[in-house]
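Side project, low priority. Logging it here so it doesn't get lost.
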Amino acid sequence: MRVLHVNVSAARGGGVEVFLHDLIAWQRARGLKVALFAETRTEGREEEELCLVQRPEWQPTLLMRDRACEEALARFSRRFRPDVVHVHNV
């Protein structure tokens, strides 16, 4: 099974993000293919199981309302092909 997690932040800072990263580790340990889509203040990047959209100012309301984020999520989803999308703190 392929699981895509979507969250406003990739940083492991708050309670939601701690849960998110623990859940990803738990799922991977059980053999699931897991990817993360989130925003970051630092350098954006896209890898096989990770897509970080760079945002100089953290504005969680923009993650799902910004054209660049929408396009990045659509492109990443098409490439990763998730069976399940788990949306967290959005």
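Brief comment: The two ends are 23 Å apart (CA to CA).
Revisit when time allows.
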